[in-house]
Write a structure and sequence with these properties.
By secondary structure, the chain is an alpha+beta fold. The chain has 2 domains: 135 residues, Trna Endonuclease, Chain: A, domain 1 (3-Layer(aba) Sandwich); 78 residues, Orthogonal Bundle (Arc Repressor Mutant, subunit A). The chain contains 8 helices and 13 strands. Helix 7 crosses helix 8.
């Protein structure tokens, strides 16, 4: 069963099973993350959730994702139980995964999610999906998270640039190439490094985010290569 509610943001109606960013009195850090891949602003209820959404934007294995997608409702020993996954994602291979963003310390203290975990996994399986716990120890792994933050910041640089000229130069590069060579081909100034990283951010180029970003970073053609 799905329990959906609508919230208004910037004149548009966006649907979520629940909207943590709009809950009055919420003690944790809430807000909206502007997702490149989802093409919309998505609510989060903690900085850890915000970091998780950031990583999904740059995960090449994730085709699309959303937050607070639906509320599972079931009856256990005559008592109604509820659970709203933090994230629903679809991989490029078509697999559907529901994820719960969690601190490792909290999961260790309550590994069955209050006795609901088996039922949650069954609800996911009934939807042809599986359930995953996504812990802070993985979400905040470095240098991946810092690299993702850097990529997200470079998107704004692309807005003021001549995309046709950039693409003409980039497409002439032999691939795989590297970050230093691509930036040098564009002019060799610091802004050109950010332009190349901006192309990575929007999926036209690809890098390994688990390695430091420097001149030797290997560049591949991305999923949105033109």
């Amino acid at each position: 069963m799905t329990d959906k509610s609508a919230r208004s943001r910037s004149g548009a109606t966006v649907r979520f099973a629940r909207n943590p960013a709009g809950r009055p009195g919420q003690r944790s850090c809430t807000g909206w993350y502007q997702s490149i891949k989802a093409g919309d602003a998505l609510p989060y209820e903690s900085l850890l959730e915000r970091d998780a959404l950031l990583l999904l934007d740059f995960d090449p294995d994730v085709a699309q994702f959303g937050v607070q997608p639906e509320t599972f409702v079931w009856t256990d020993a005559g008592r109604q139980r509820r659970y709203t996954p933090d994230i629903r994602l679809e991989t490029v291979g078509g697999e559907v995964i529901y994820r719960q963003v969690k601190l490792a310390t909290r999961l260790a203290a309550d590994p069955t999610l209050g006795g609901r975990l088996r039922a949650i996994e069954a609800e996911c399986a009934a939807r042809g999906a599986r359930h995953e716990m996504w812990l802070d120890t993985d979400i905040r792994r470095q240098p991946r998270l810092s690299n993702a933050r850097r990529l997200r910041a470079t998107v704004a640089v692309l807005a003021a640039e001549n995309h046709h000229a950039i693409h003409t130069i980039i497409t002439r590069l032999p691939f795989p190439s590297n970050l230093g060579a691509a930036a040098e081909a564009l002019g060799g100034r610091p802004v050109h490094v950010n332009i190349v990283l901006g192309l990575v951010a929007v999926g036209e180029l690809a890098v390994d985010l688990d390695r430091p970003l420097d001149d030797d970073t290997v560049l591949m053609r991305g999923r949105n290569a033109k």
